[in-house]
Design a protein that fits this description.
This protein has 520 residues and is mostly helical. It folds into two domains: 339 residues, no CATH class; 102 residues, Four Helix Bundle (Hemerythrin (Met), subunit A). It is built from 20 helices and no strands.
């Protein structure tokens, strides 16, 4: 069993690092832009520091930037260095990992849009109440930081950002990120494989409290948290537990808690945690009955939380090869690219540290003379740093929105991908190759969801008819998965036929009519 736990921890941490890589990279970029281009004064203006709109503005900015609870750590550290209030920093840090354009669109097709909207507004209520109370109990007493010498325009202004990113990588930010990953190891030790499948069913009075204990050490990306919310709604799990999982599972981890302890001391950190848990659990119980879905048949268990448990059992073998195979299967192109970029940033940071022993790099970056104003008619305009910083931040938001169309392709492309995956699942199930079929079933489920989001994204609507056809396929996939796990050959054959028919009906429903314009 010890060997299973060790290899399970290695797999879970490796999966978390790969999933978090794009968000961590974004966090380092945002922190460097805040520091080198926007600066403390403009950053305080950006977040409305000292005004009534500071907390709502931090919530809104957090919803737009694509970061996770690990990637937000360097951004929070930079905000504190710039002199923002504790309430504003914590409001941003708690909101930014919860929502982004990709996850919100994904969530809108998981359940009724009213549910996702309610969760979003409740997150605003959480950060506003906690921020106001926290700033009232613990007013800021620290002096505002002085502005750093500006980096002049030209190549040095770009080099300055990469230097800041490299330095931030080799700082406490990375240590806090590593601390944030320890929660995954802890859950891998205390939760055996499949042990959390029936723990937060609807109607269970203790479900939100139990989910709180699991959600705090959990690391979940915005997309993972949103997909688990959808699974919980579809299986009739506790709505209160779903809200707790979103706020605490996606918005908090041990790394943020460790940073708070070092930055604000144990009294302030304990006070903030008490406020947070009180408001989140209270809202969870308040949302339970009003938002509980009435058009579903509650299931007695769910596989949504298997990713938080140990992935192996004691009677399994070849753990190392299984870990390598799972990582090869799960690693996405954007995750691999982000890992390579993070490695490059690490190398830059090491080079900066080595160069700094014999050369004053900061003095070189800020000592260049500012050229004279360009002559009339010259298109080579000199833009202030704060404008470049604002454009960079907005560029991240625009890129996040644009990625929605790449991540959620057109219905025709989704159906083509599903056709390929269907062949893998059905042929493996009929031939008795259960491991191969069990690998491809989640892939089919993912494309089934992306098909719905792609339709919603392009038409801003998804009819009940289309939801129903996709839901039937999802239900048949789940039944086939259970039959394969239980090694029930007759049931496998039955659900294979049922799934093939359900897929045919879904294809006809989502394909545009021959006389249409190509839009659903």
């Amino acid at each position: 069993m010890f060997e299973a736990i060790i290899w399970g921890a290695i797999l879970r941490v490796a999966q978390a690092v790969s999933q978090a890589a794009p968000f961590i990279l974004t966090g380092y970029i945002v922190a460097a832009v805040f520091r080198k281009w926007i600066g403390p004064t403009n950053l305080r203006k950006l977040f409305g520091e000292g005004t009534w709109r500071a907390l709502p503005q931090a919530w809104a900015l957090g919803m737009l930037l694509p970061v996770c609870s690990l990637g937000v750590i360097p951004v929070m550290r930079e905000m504190k260095r710039a002199g923002l209030s504790s309430g504003t920093i914590l409001a941003f840090g708690l909101t930014a990992p919860l929502f982004n354009p990709l996850s919100v669109l994904y969530g809108l097709t998981l359940s009724e849009p009213f549910t996702i909207l309610s969760f979003s507004l409740c997150s605003l209520l959480v950060v506003t109440v906690i921020g106001v109370v926290f700033d009232w109990l613990f007013p800021r007493t620290a002096d505002l930081p002085s502005e750093e010498p500006p980096v002049p325009q030209g190549i040095r202004r770009i080099v300055g950002v990469f230097v800041a990113m490299g330095r931030e990588f080799w700082s406490w930010s990375t240590i806090y990120i590593l601390i944030g990953l320890t929660g995954i190891v802890l859950l891998n030790v205390i939760l055996p494989k499949g042990s959390f499948q029936s723990s937060v069913n609807g109607g269970d009075l203790w479900a939100p409290v139990l989910m709180t204990g699991v959600a705090i050490p959990v690391y979940a990306t915005p997309m993972l948290a949103m997909s688990q919310l959808g699974t919980m709604f579809q299986h009739g799990n506790s709505v209160g537990a779903a809200f707790v999982l979103l706020i605490l599972g996606a918005g908090l981890n041990f790394g943020i808690m460790a940073w708070m302890l070092c930055a604000y001391g144990w009294k302030r950190s304990a006070g903030w945690m008490v406020l947070l848990l009180s408001v989140v659990i209270g809202l969870g119980y308040a949302l339970e009955k009003p938002l509980y879905p009435t058009d579903i048949e509650a299931a007695d268990h769910s596989h949504a939380f298997d990713v938080y448990c140990c992935p192996f059992t004691a009677d399994e073998t070849a753990y190392a090869s299984q870990v390598v195979q799972k990582l090869n299967d799960d690693l996405r192109a954007e995750e691999l690219f982000s890992l390579y970029v993070l490695l490059a940033i690490a190398v830059i940071g090491l080079a900066v540290r080595l160069i700094g022993r014999s050369f004053d790099l900061d003095r070189w970056l800020t000592s260049a003379e500012t050229p004279n104003d360009p002559p009339a008619g010259n298109w080579d305009l000199v833009l202030p740093n704060w404008i470049l910083g604002g454009v960079s931040i907005m560029g991240l938001v625009v890129a996040s929105v644009a990625m929605c169309y790449a991540y959620y392709p057109s219905p025709e492309e989704c159906l083509d991908e599903i056709f390929i995956v269907k062949g893998e699942v059905l042929s493996a199930a009929m031939s008795g190759n259960a491991p191969h079929a069990l690998y491809w079933i989640p892939v089919w489920e993912d494309w089934n969801r992306r098909l719905q989001v792609g339709v919603y994204l392009r038409g801003m609507a998804l009819s009940d008819y289309h939801r129903m056809k996709a839901r039937i396929v999802r239900d048949q996939l789940e039944m086939l998965e259970h039959a394969l796990e239980d090694d029930e050959h007759e049931e496998v054959a039955h659900y294979t036929r049922q799934l093939a028919r359900a897929h045919g009906r879904l294809t006809r429903a989502y394909q545009p009519a021959p006389s249409s314009t190509g839009k659903l």
